[in-house]
Amino acid sequence: MTQRLATPAEVERIEELLASFKLPTLAQQTVQRLEQAGHELALVTLLELLEAERDERFRRRCQRLLKGSGLPPGKTFDTLDPTRVPKGVLRKLQELASGEFLDRTDNVLCFGLPGRGKTHAACALGHALVQRGRSVLFVPTFQLVQSLLAAKRDLELPRALRKLDAFELIILDDIGYVQQSADEVEVLFTLMAERYERRSLLITSNLVFGEWDRIFKNPMTTAAAIDRVVHHSVILEFNGQSVRAEEAKKRSPAPHKP
User: Fold this and answer.
1) How far apart are CA 171 and CA 201, in angstroms?
2) Whole-prediction pTM value?
3) How remote is the C-alpha of 242 from its chain's centroid?
4) Pairing with 20, which of 4, 54, 206, 209 sits 20 to 30 Å away (CA)?
C-alpha cells in the first residue's frame, strides 16, 4: 500500500483530537516532533488511531449515560409502532432526536389520555439522545418528587438539584399523578424554576393545562408553573385509541359462540 503525507486538514484534526483528549502538550508538539524526526508518513496512521480512540471513548460514554438514565430498555424508536402515533408527532420526535432543542434549553410537553403512547415516545426520544452522547434522566414524577422531599427534610435540597442539573434533559413521566400536598407542589415547582431557561424538561401528562390546578392547587403557582414550561417549548398531542386497551383486547379470548 502506497504511503502518503497527511493533508493540512488531517494535521489540524490530529491537533484537535489530542486537545479534546485533554493532552495539550501532545496537541502542541506531536506533529512538529514527528516532522522534525522525519516521520511525516506516520501522521496518517496516527490520525486513524486517534479517531479509533475517539469512537471508543464515545461508545463508552453512551454506555455510561444509558446506565445512569433510568430509561426502560425496550422503549425505543425501533419498538414504537408508528401507526399508534400521530404522523405530525412522529415527525417532530424524529426532528427532536437531533438534540438541537437541548442546546436551546427548550422543553417538550406530551399530552394525551392514558395509554396513548406518550411514555414510550418520550423514552424513545431519550434513547435516541443518549446515543448522541446527551445526558438524559427518565423518572416517574411522583418518584422524583418523593426523592426531593427527602432531600429537603435532610436539608440537602440544593445539593439534590445540583445533581439533577447534570442532566441535559429530565423526562418527568405522568406529572398528573403527583399527590398534590403543599410540600410536594413546592419541590416540583422549585425543580421547574431551577431548570427554567437553563436545562430542558420533557413532561408527559394526561391533564391539559386547564386541569393543572389539580396538581398545583394555588392558581398563582399553577400559572407560574405553566409559564415556565411553556416558554420555549414544543407541545405534542397524542390522540387515538389506547394502546394498552387494544393490546388487552387482542389477548382476550374470543367470545364463545353457542
Assistant:
1) 6
2) 0.86
3) 25
4) 4
| pLDDT value of residue 250 | 46
Regions of the chain short of the pLDDT cut 50: 244-252, 255-258
Cα–Cα dist 12/109, whole Å: 42
Domain locations in the chain? 8-63, 82-245
CB 244 within 8 Å of CB 115: yes
Asked if 174 and 142 count as a contact pair (C-beta separation under 8 A), the reply is yes
Number of residues in the chain:
258
Please name the residue that has the C-alpha cell 449515560: 65
Burial class of residue 203 in the structure, from the number of CB atoms within 10 Å of its CB (0-12 exposed, 13-18 middle, 19+ buried): buried
Instruction: Give the CATH architecture of domain 82-245.
Output: 3-Layer(aba) Sandwich (3.40)
Query: What does the chain look like in DSSP terms, one character per residue?
Result: ----PPPHHHHHHHHHHHHHTT-HHHHHHHHHHHHHTT-TTHHHHHHHHHHHHHHHHHHHHHHHHHHTT---TT-STTTS-GGGS-HHHHHHHHHHTT-HHHHTT-EEEEE--TTSSHHHHHHHHHHHHHTTT--EEEEEHHHHHHHHHHHHHTT-HHHHHHHHTT-SEEEEE-GGG----HHHHHHHHHHHHHHTTTSEEEEEESS-GGGTHHHH-SHHHHHHHHHHHHTTEEEEE--SS-HHHHHHHHHSPPPPP-
- Report pLDDT for 126: 98
